Amino acid sequence: MENGYVILPRLLSDEDLKEAVQHADDLLKGAAWSDNDFDGRRTRRVYELLSRVGAFEPLLTHPRVRALVTEGLGEVHQFGMLFLSAVDPGQGAQALHFDAGVYPLPRDVEAEINVIWALDDFTTGNGATLIAPGSHLWPAGRRPREDELIPVVMPAGSAVVYSGRLWHAAGHNRSEATRRALICEHVLPWLRPADNHTLAAGAEGLRSLSPELRRLAGVAPASPYHGFIGGQDPEKWLHRSILG
Ligand SMILES: O=C(O)CCC(=O)C(=O)O
C-alpha cells in the first residue's frame, strides 16, 4: 500500500516455471520485433493468450496474486492487457509510464492491479523493470527523476504485483540473453480492457477456459445491470448456447 508494489520471490514451483518457459518459447517462435518505440523495436510481444493459455494457467490464476488483486479491485475484475514479452539483447529502456494512464480517471482511483512474472532472472544487466516506489500516490503530472528509480531484481519464477498508478518501465537489456516475462493487467469490471479478450478467444476459446479464467476474460458482469446478455449473467448464456 505504501510502496505501490510487492515482490513475491520464487512463487512458482520449478516444474511450473519450466513448463511456463517452454510454453513461452513455443509462442515466441516466429514472433517479430515490435514496430514502435514504446513496445520496443528489439522486443517481441505475444498477445491473444486466452486462446492458448497452456502452461500459463498457474501464473494467471495464482492464489497469492489473485488475493492481492481482489484486495485492490474487489471480487469482480477482469484482465486488461495480457501479453508475453521477450526483451532481446540491445533493447534500450522503455519510456516511463503508469499503466492506468490509458484511462481518463483521477489519479486517486485504483483502476488496475498488475503483475509481471519473471520467466528469466531479472537483473540490473538484463533490463529488470524499473519502478519508482511510492509513485502510485503522486499527483497528476509528477514524473520520476532518474534517482527515484530502482530495478525489480528477482529470480525467475517470481512476480511483482503493482498498482496501475505506479510509474515504471522495462529496463535496458545490456546482456547477451533475452529477458522473458508474462505481463498481466487486471482492471475494474466497468472499464474497457486494453485487449478484447472475449472476441479474441471466441466462443470455442471461452468454452475451453476454466470458469475462473472465463470470468477474468470479462464474462463476469460488473453488476446485475452492467455486462449482461438478455438480462442474464453471460455465464448462464454461455452454458445455454455454447456449453450446454
Ligand atoms: O517489461 C517490463 O519490465 C515492463 C513492460 C511494461 O511496463 C509495458 O510494456 O507496459
Question: How is this structure best described in words?
Answer:
With 244 residues, this protein is of the alpha+beta class. The chain contains 6 helices and 9 strands; from the N terminus they run E-H-E-H-H-E-E-E-E-E-E-E-H-H-H. Helix 4 runs antiparallel to helix 5 (211-219). The protein is globular. The mean pLDDT is 95. Bound molecules: 2-oxoglutaric acid. 2-oxoglutaric acid binds next to strand 9.
What's the quick description here?
The chain is α+β, with helices and mostly antiparallel strands.
Largest sheet: 6 strands, antiparallel
Say how many strands there are: 9
What is the CATH topology of the largest domain?
Jelly Rolls
CATH superfamily of the largest domain: q2cbj1_9rhob like domain
Question: At the first level of CATH, what is the class of the largest domain?
Answer: Mainly Beta
H/E topology pattern? EHEHHEEEEEEEHHH
β-strand percent reads: 15-25%
Shape call: globular
Low-confidence stretches: none
* Helix content, binned percent: 25-40%
The class by helix and strand makeup works out as alpha+beta
* Spatial order of strands in the largest sheet: 1-7-4-9-3-2
Topology (elements, then pairings):
Blueprint: E1 5-8, H1 14-28, E2 43-46, H2 57-60, H3 63-73, E3 78-87, E4 112-118, E5 130-131, E6 150-151, E7 159-163, E8 168-169, E9 179-187, H4 197-208, H5 211-219, H6 234-243
Antiparallel strand pairs: 1-7, 2-3, 3-9, 4-7, 4-9, 5-6, 5-8
Helix pairs in contact: 4-5
The structure holds 2-oxoglutaric acid.
Protein name: Ectoine hydroxylase-related dioxygenase, phytanoyl-CoA dioxygenase (PhyH) family
Organism: Actinoplanes campanulatus
Pfam families: PhyH
